[in-house]
Amino acid sequence: MDQRSTLDDKVEEARSYLARAAPFRAKTAVVLGSGLGPVRDAFETIRAFPYKEIPHFPVSTVQGHRGELVFARWGKRKVAILDGRVHRYEGYSWSQVTFPTRVLAAIGVTTVIVTNASGAVSNRFRPGDIMLIDDHIDLIWKGVAEVRRGPEALHRPYYSRRMLEAACDLAIAKGIPARKGVLLGTTGPTYETRHDVEFARKMGADAVTMSTVPEVTVCHELGISVLGMSLVTNVAASHAGGHATVVSFAARASRNLKEMILGVLERLAPAG
């Protein structure tokens, strides 16, 4: 049995488990990054599955990632929420890092709102701002052989233009500090040096993170529409408090991100 068959079999085991145990099917999913768990409070949790209970699911080991797949409601809208993610620097393979995304697709998810905490490298952003991801620079994905892209994927954007424009309109309407920008994905776990930041600026990045790009790459492979939002929690290369400070700030500043997610769901996600 080749590696791809093994991966597909594992995804099917997780899908089968959730098909039996989940309270409903959701077409929309939200992925919560470091310290962004409070966003979940806006939803009514119907059932939560710790990652360790789902066959082959990787378990979050980093502060600020609760590690649960949540089936929840907001009004009449049904969503699946990944409350926390895993990263390559935790010792997981690329297949494991992106496994939850493949399971979401397998259970019927067609739209993903992906979030992260990020460090600003552009002076257009400051802590507390939301960067609506217009595109990304990929210095994190090393698992290209694990991605199957058909010719149609070459002409499909990584981030949904429709969802991006809806988010921009929403930010203006609500007076939320949010604007488009380019995300740089790195492997971590170390934060950026001053020269890393200068390099990122020269490449055209506005903010940097240690996640998101692998998940979005797999969404692109699978034809899932993506809206990406980065909560800027610090200025890159200025992070004296380390990860704990990032998580703490993200938790306090997540209110606007919550408003953005709910507003986008109201505009775009089907009810019922």
How would you portray this structure in words?
With 272 residues, the protein is of the alpha/beta class. It is built from seven helices and nine strands; from the N terminus they run αββββααββαβαβαβα. The N and C termini lie far apart (40 Å). The relative contact order is 0.20.
Topology:
Elements: H1 3-21, E1 28-32, E2 44-50, E3 68-74, E4 77-83, H2 94-97, H3 99-106, E5 111-120, E6 130-138, H4 161-174, E7 178-185, H5 194-203, E8 207-209, H6 213-222, E9 225-235, H7 242-268
Parallel strand pairs: 1-4, 1-5, 5-9, 6-7, 7-8
Antiparallel strand pairs: 2-3, 3-4, 5-8, 6-9
Helix pairs in contact: 1-3, 4-7
The geometry reads as globular
CATH architecture: 3-Layer(aba) Sandwich
Listing every helix as H and every strand as E from the N terminus to the C terminus, the arrangement reads HEEEEHHEEHEHEHEH
CATH level 3 topology: Rossmann fold
- Provide the β-strand percentage band: 15-25%
Radius of gyration: 17 Å
Biggest sheet character: 5 strands, mixed, barrel
CATH homologous group name: Nucleoside phosphorylase domain
Strand order of the largest sheet: 5-8-7-6-9
Please tally the β strands and state the result: 9
**Helix/strand class:** alpha/beta
Provide the CATH top-level class: Alpha Beta
User: Low-confidence parts, pLDDT < 50 over ≥5 residues?
Assistant: none
Distance between the termini: 40 Å
What portion of residues is helical? Answer: 25-40%
Query: How many helices does DSSP assign?
Result: 7
Structural domains: how many: 1
Mean pLDDT: 88
